[in-house]
User: Fold this.
Amino acid sequence: MARAAVLGAGSWGTSFAKVLAEAGTDVTMWARRPEVAKVLATEHRNPWYLPDVDLPPIAATDDPRIALAGADIVVLAVPSQSLRVNLAEWKDLIPAEATLLSLAKGIETGTLLRMSQVISEVTGADPDRVAVLSGPNLAHEIAARQPAATVVACRDTARAEAVQHASATGYFRPYTNSDVIGCEIGGACKNVIALACGIASGMGLGDNSVASLITRGLAEIIRLGVAVGAEPVTFAGLAGVGDLVATCTSPLSRNRSFGHALGAGGTMESAQRATNGQVVEGVKSCTSVRALAAAHGVEMPLTEFMHQVCHEGLSTSEAVGRLLGRRLKSE
Assistant:
């Protein structure tokens, strides 16, 4: 039996720990707050993030040393912009041969590194030990055992397959892939496009508008992905268009919900309250993705306007006007 340590007790970390346990993997969760770890361990619930979900018996602790002891798979389920500081605390506790699996989706501010690059840089792990998981994986639906598929990407096929078998259930179907770059670029950028789709929805715009944003958003994601070394075909799969559609259209998506609140006339502060104070990756990612695109000479107009809305005070109506006013060109 594989042993997994899930570091992070948010909605997705908790849901994925549930998947692992129900797939027959021995799971220990780590939560930063002792009270969260205690409730997870004794009541098998996470009332902070998944209040209506009963969890299988899963060990939980606030001590990373206990969580990581003997782990074959180390699941990193903390927000992208806090991954580096957390890894600095954990790196000496991680078993030398463990596969490091990132659930975080983002581009690190400042360094413009993908999460797998951050993991290797901080821990010194060979990139072949680092895997990423990405797909249309809304945490609440998966916690409710609604069927979903995902992609486990790793340069080492054997490690990808080990994670695949450790997380396969009757409702959760993992596929393997070797394109780590493509899966990470798709996962980071889709949050930005979901903000735009949420804004359109909040402004009362219809399905034509949202579909146009998804399609043009996918085009700029592919441009960036190819520029940094991704395989174009990856973006036609689960970690590309699959994740993009789910995040851009579902009311369960924090990024879409945040954008919806802005589009309905809310402020950044009220939009944050609309997502119950949870981390909205797209708000920070729009700036780092924009910077990465600029570094590679890639045009990403939706990302540019989302940065301006979130960080430079551009109104949502002005952003829409500027998008529609761009010069006409071929697709």
In short: The two ends are 50 Å apart (CA to CA). The first strand starts at residue 3 and ends at 7. The chain has two domains: 3-178, 181-324. The beta strands are 3-7, 26-30, 59-61, 73-76, 99-102, 130-134, 148-154, 172-177.
